[in-house]
Amino acid sequence: MQHQQTTFDPATTDRQRILPAIASATLTIYQFFDIGDAIDLDHAQRCLNNPSERRVRLRTRQSESIRIAQPPLRIELGSLTVSLADTAFEGVLRAVVYDLGAVEMAVEMRPAVPLSWEDAATLFAAAQELPPALSGRIATALNDLEMLIRPAISRPQRSPVVEDYCVLIVDRLDPPCTVADLADHPVVRATLLGERRPLSADASRLVTAISYYLDDLALLSWNGALLIEPDAAAAATAAEIIAFANVELLLIRSYDAALDARLPEVHRRIAQAQRHFTMPLVRRYSQLLSDVQRLVAEVTEVTEQIDNALKVTDDVYWNRLYSAALGVLRVRVWRDGVDHKLALLRETYAMLHADADSERAAALEWAIVLLIVFEIVMALLERSGVI
Length: 387
Fold this sequence. Notes:
The protein is an alpha+beta fold and 387 residues long. It has helices spanning 14-17, 41-47, 117-127, 132-149, 186-192, 201-204, 232-275, 286-309, 317-328, 331-383; strands at residues 21-34, 36-39, 52-53, 66-68, 73-84, 87-97, 102-109, 153-156, 162-174, 208-210, 217-220, 224-228, 310-312.
């Protein structure tokens, strides 16, 4: 996306001019990687020399409604200097390892305050295409981490699919204001999308807004989230839920890409099997049937694990937040694509199985005919005295 360099129009409305400045905030840039089929988190923790922890840090309102099947492994990777939008920041790098085979790399920094909405938009825009130095630092840290925990990874293989996301947590505005007034503000919504100009009404629909109290607000979009939240525990919980949604998107996209690569191979092997002559009662599709069945079982198992990784048991704010995050990331669309490809594989399996059964039945029928002919010939030969 090309970001306009025009600053805000000075002839803005009074409502735009009275926007409060961001008095305290934390910016976190995420990259999500798929490095294997699964990760034994206990084994991975034993492989590490870095400080790490495995515990659910959800200690906020109604957090008992959130169920995490396997609490991820959190690893602190030290401090670093980040250059973003021609500005240097001191940040910290951490990794979060999920049992589903995904790794979250996060760079957390605190922008200088007061921070204008225009400057925040610049940071969101810059985060959509990271500087090579920062990308290289993340890649090096991921490679080092992957080497350390490799014994804990089941079938290690790096997927080419990588997800990026950015979250700005604002814990204080100056002057304080009614946060609900910011939910539909064109400048605030433009900030989240990394645009320095106010959005049209149509473009504003790219942002989803939800809130719980009068002083909190979550704005979600495909590229990032803006959380105005004075409660640090609630802000951390919201960020973790959004990260889970990104992990789900990553894994669904990874398996969608894997299925895209495997389907042409299946079709090619079917064509090869149909061209080759096989002896009667020899199943030409036996290995192919086994491979297709295994692939369907693997993807089905993984998608079920993804569905069960995080559950919100009650219809409360966190449920709405998680559903909204899945919605703006279009996880359902990608999931429907995977389900469609799985349906094609199941239909292919059924077709091959029916074809194999038909061939086997035809071979048995021919065998019976040949046995009858053999018996008739033998009887004629006996009557003629030949044998």
